[in-house]
Amino acid sequence: MTVLEDVYPSRVGAEPSRHPRVDPVVYAGGPISDRLPDDELRAYERTGYLTTELIQPWEVAALTREVQRLTALPELQGADEVITEPDSDVVRSIFMVHRLSPVFAQLARDRRLLDVARQILGSEVYVHQSRVNLKPGFVGKEFYWHSDFETWHLEDGMPRMRAVSVSVALTDNHAYNGPLMLMPGSHRTYVACVGETPPDHYRQSLRKQEYGVPDEHSLSELAREGGIVAPTGPAGSAVFFDCNTMHGSASNISPEPRTNVFLVYNSIDNTLADPFCGLPPRPEHIATRQEVVPLEPSP
Ligand code: 6CS
Ligand code: FE
Predict the structure, then answer these.
(1) Are 164 and 241 in contact (CB under 8 A)?
(2) What is the pLDDT of residues 173-227, one digit of tens each?
(3) Most buried pick, 14, 99, 129, 263, via CB within 10 A?
(4) Are 41 and 164 in contact (CB under 8 A)?
(5) Which ligand has the minimum distance to the alpha carbon of residue 143?
(6) CA–CA gap between residue 294 and residue 112 (Å, rounded)
(7) 157-187 burial: b if 16+ Cβ within 10 Å, else e
(8) Which DSSP letter does residue 198 get?
C-alpha cells in the first residue's frame, strides 16, 4: 500500500500558516478543450472562479419542485443526508442529491456543467459531493469563510487540488439574501488551519464549521490581495469555483430564500485516499468512495 505524501498538511501546527499552491488550476490535455472560450478559462485560472448564465427558467422550476419533493419525502425525514440549521430544525442542506434524485443526476451529467469540469480538470470526472443549500429567508445561517479543499483533503483524503464546484442558483441571488462570496486569487494560497479534527466532525461542521476555519490574519491578507466579490444573478445563473478558492456566505435575514445546488466534480485521477487527518473516512453521502466511474455526458 503506497502511503501518499501529504503536500497540504493542516490542523497540525500550533500556528496557522499560508503556503503556495503546488497544483495547476487548469489542467491541460483533457477530453474537452472548447467548452469555455480561452479568455474565460484564463480568467478562471487567474481568479479561481467564473460566473455564467447556465440553465433556463423552466429547468430551475423543475429542480425547485424536486427540492420540495425531497424535503417532504418521508424516508428523508431525519436522514443523515439532511442537515438542519444549527439553532432549529429548519433544513439547511440536503446532501447527495445526485444519487437521491434522477433530476439532479441528469443535471450532474449535463454537458453545460460536466464539460466545463472536464475541460478545467483535464480529465474524466465524477461527482465527489452534491448538496442543495436551502438558506431560507430570515433563518438561513451563514457558511463562514473556508476552503473546501482543506476539509476534503483532511477529512476525505482528497490528494490534490483537482476538483471544481459549480453552484447553480435556484432562486435569485441578491446582495441581500446571503449570496456566495469569494476571494479572487485566494485559490493560489493554501491556508493551513490549527486545531485537531474531532471524531465525526461533519455532524457539527455541516451545521456550523469550527475546525478547518482559516485564521483572521490569513483571511485579511487574502482579502487585501484580491478583494471580495459576491456575484449576484438570477435563478439559473451559476458560479464555477476552484476547490481551494476561499468562500463563504452570510446569514440570510431577508424574506427571500437563497437556494443553490452545488455539484463538486473531482478528477478521476484524484480519487480519495485515506483522510490526511488520520480519522476514518466520512460517510458516502458526503464524499464519494464507491462506484467511482467517469460521468457519461447526458444526451
Ligand atoms: O465539509 C464539507 O464537505 C462541506 N463544508 C462546506 C462548508 N463546504 C463544502 C462542503 O459542503
Ligand atoms: Fe464550501
Answers:
(1) yes
(2) 999 999 999 999 999 999 999 988 999 999 999 998 888 899 999 999 999 999 9
(3) 263
(4) no
(5) 1
(6) 16
(7) bbbbbbbbbbbbbbbbbbeebbbbbbbbbbb
(8) P
Element (H, E) at 65: helix 57-72
Which atom of ligand 1 has the smallest separation from the CA of 156? Answer: 3
Record the cell numbers describing residue 253, joined without a space: 435575514
265 DSSP β-pair partners = 127, 164
Instruction: Tell me how far the alpha carbon of residue 205 lies from the centroid of ligand 1, in angstroms.
Output: 8
205 lines ligand 1 (CB under 6 A): yes
Give me 211's grid cell: 475546525
State how far Cα 74 lies from the chain centre.
Answer: 27
For the chain, the distance separating the N- and C-terminal CA atoms, rounded to the nearest angstrom, is 39
Distance (Å) from CA 89 to ligand 1 centroid = 19
Q: What cell numbers appear for 92 in the block? A: 439547511
CA distances from 19 to 94, 191, 218, 286 (A): 33, 6, 11, 27
98 pocket-lining for ligand 1 (C-beta < 6 Å)? no
Is 75 strand, coil or helix?
A: helix
**SS3 for 211-262, per residue?**
CCCCCHHHHHHHHHHHCCECCCECCCEEEEEECCCCEEECCECCCCCCCEEE
Closest residue by CA, ligand 1 atom 6 = 148
Could you tell me the distance, in angstroms and rounded to a whole number, from the CA of residue 1 to the centre of ligand 2? 31
Rounded-to-integer distance, Cα 127 and Cα 110, Å: 12
pTM above 0.90, yes or no: yes
Please state, in angstroms and rounded to a whole number, the distance separating the CA atoms of residues 270 and 157.
10
The grid coordinates listed for 247 are: 468562500
**What is the Cα–Cα distance from 86 to 176, expressed in whole angstroms?**
21
CB atoms within 10 A of CB 53: 11
Q: Distance between CA atoms of 292 and 288, rounded to whole angstroms?
A: 7
Q: At what angle do helices 111-121 and 38-47 cross, to 10 degrees?
A: 70
